[in-house]
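Hey,
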Amino acid sequence: MGLAPDDPGDVVCDIVADHLQCTYLQSQITVSIPVDHLICVLPDPEQSRCRYKLLFLQRRSESQEVCTFLESIRVTYIPSTILSVYLFRDIPPHFQGRNVHVVISTASGTGKGKNVFHNVLQPFLSHLKLDNYKLHETQSPNTISELANSTFLPCARTGIPQTIVLFSGDGGLVDIVNAFHTSTDMVLAPPNIALIPTGTGNAMASSIGLLRHPNSTLVALLQGKPVLLPTFVANFSPGAQQVISEGQNVSALNNKFATGSQSPVVYGAVVASWGLHATLVADSDTAEYRKFGNERFKMAAKELLYPSNGSETHRYNGVIDLVKWDELEKKQYVETMKHTEHMYMLATLVSRLEKDFVISPNSLPLDGRLKLVHFAPMPPEEVTELLGLAYQSGQHAYEAPVTYEDIEGFRITFQEENEKWRRVCVDGRIITVEENGWMEVRKETRSLLNVITCATENDLHS
């Protein structure tokens, strides 16, 4: 689709199937725009004839690569059904009277964050006359954490409103989560975070509907509202360390401790796992694997389920205690799982780990419920079939071998000699636990950040 040239005649739009067709009456040139590529309709009072400016997304080739660009077209008439949804009336509250930061994680996913900013967000903000923002690009894996501690936290402490437009996957979000939750200072004004998903999995963005349609992210930026971000806290035995440098090195976990705790602590907003999920995330976290995007997870899973050396699929050994809520007694209680051998152990606050991988079909966007997904060892063919059902709207959760339920938290006591099988995953961060060590996860009672979203219960089944 090419944009029509400048035309002195009127331009009228009609809905044809799932497209908006804009026709230049004088030349009869037509521009056809998929409705789910529309961003907004701006009133254009300076133009006597073309009353509106229509902003939309267009994909086209540039330098042998297909990229998405923001485009605009001036039009005279737009159907009321489009105006009722897309007409821009005012700057959204999360951009009014507050500090606005745009943070680009340059290494996130396949490294396309800067292109998306220059091709889409920068012109979009310019059309809205929102040019008063501070741009930050990551220089190292620690940039977002450092920025959160040096800039975002001091403003939040003093009650200064902030909106952070974050080009990242789940990793950038969890960096901000950890900076805020490990601080002992009171947060008077929780920042609003607007996610622009540029990572590999993009679990949070997928779960709050930002990848539902091509236009969802920018529409949420305009029409969304801030919602408190639920989190969890993971405590570890003293010898736990974070795996870095593509698994080649380890580093100490955060030296700050949760209130009343003397163990290393990490906060998360997406997933805490052990077993197959954690191992495949760890094994696929290399530059070579990341080139394949989401496919890297399937590639790593295949090697774990069908080891190339001919060995059997590993059975993960450990004792798991589940913390549950007794609705009658109105209190928590602990239940020890009868299995001591495991294949898949995962607790999540989101519904999707990827756009189409529905890990928890009953989770609503940002509902704060921690869901357990667990199954014991089984033949690799059955594991493949079971996890394949997650791509069918999460049907795996209703299969007999799967335990799928609400929990308040859990504790794993590891019974593995080989460190490879003592690796756990917290929102993509890989942590190795010492022999006979433990990991304990609980829902966090504090909410210190907002996420901007348009997601509703309808997103659960779409």
